[in-house]
Amino acid sequence: DTEVTQTPKHLVMGMTNKKSLKCEQHMGHRAMYWYKQKAKKPPELMFVYSYEKLSINESVPSRFSPECPNSSLLNLHLHALQPEDSALYLCASSPPLRDSAFFGPGTRLTVL
Amino acid sequence: GDSVTQMEGPVTLSEEAFLTINCTYTATGYPSLFWYVQYPGEGLQLLLKATKADDKGSNKGFEATYRKETTSFHLEKGSVQVSDSAVYFCALNSEGGSEKLVFGKGTKLTVNP
Question: Which residue is closest to B104 within chain A, CA to CA?
Answer without folding.
Answer: A42
